[in-house]
Amino acid sequence: MYNDLKGKNVLVTGGTKGIGKAISLGFAVEGARVISISRHTPEDTDDRITYYNCDVSSSNDVKSTIENILSKFNTIDILVNNAGIEEYASLDKTDEGMWDRIMDINVKGVYNVSKYCIQEMIKNHGGNIINISSVQANIITKNAAAYVTSKHAIIGLTKSIALDYAPEIRCNAVLPATIDTPLVRKAAILEVGNNEEKIKEKIREWGLQHPLGRIGKPEEVANTVLFLASNQSSFITGASIMVDGGLSIKAPISTPDE
């Protein structure tokens, strides 16, 4: 679909499962050379993807990993900052450890990887960065103070990169709503316990909150990322693209005829 992605070197953080895995596979299908970095060993590997173990919250780990990547691939053309974690608590119940874990992965991770990739992109006359934020950078749920804050921060960082490095580097954010990933399943277990039928019902219930009547698929987020990485989106930068099944346009209060 996107011929200009063929042969590009694409770095995806958190690329071993969920949305990150779908993004990695999507680029591989387009003929890109895909590099996945993650703290987690992939459950199943793909010959088209090169995997590195890396903690994105560690500046030293990121620096050495990117140096290793560049020694093999020479350049990084496209970066997708996808790695993220989510924990639930209101602010007064959020201890410092939880706050730091979420900020270190979700925000500092984007900073660390972007910093070293941008340096290489500038040397090679340009690049493209896509940051995975969340619909919760726009509308939020209760008891997720640290996560919500981190996803808002990613929008600010996206805009700063887009402005500071234009026109050589484009940078955009993708804001998914509820997507069928291990994180969503974990959230359902926290609410209803480890009962498969109750988990399915909770996820179905969440899906019905979206005007499209279901939760999203990781591939639907990946499709948006591929578009933003391609020349088809060549006049888009600093944008936040919703992939939310209409969730962010729905009023929270039903009208009398509903």
From TrEMBL:
Q: Which domain of life is it from?
A: Archaea
Q: Which SUPFAM superfamilies match?
A: NAD(P)-binding Rossmann-fold domains
One GO BP: fatty acid biosynthetic process
Q: Which GO terms describe its molecular function?
A: oxidoreductase activity, acting on the CH-OH group of donors, NAD or NADP as acceptor; quinone binding
**Similarity remark:** Belongs to the short-chain dehydrogenases/reductases (SDR) family.
**Record PANTHER family:** NAD(P)-BINDING PROTEIN, SHORT-CHAIN DEHYDROGENASES/REDUCTASES FAMILY MEMBER
What NCBIfam families does the database record attribute to this sequence? PRK06398.1
Q: What is this protein called?
A: Aldose dehydrogenase
Organism equals Ferroplasma acidarmanus Fer1
Lineage of the source organism? Archaea, Methanobacteriati, Thermoplasmatota, Thermoplasmata, Thermoplasmatales
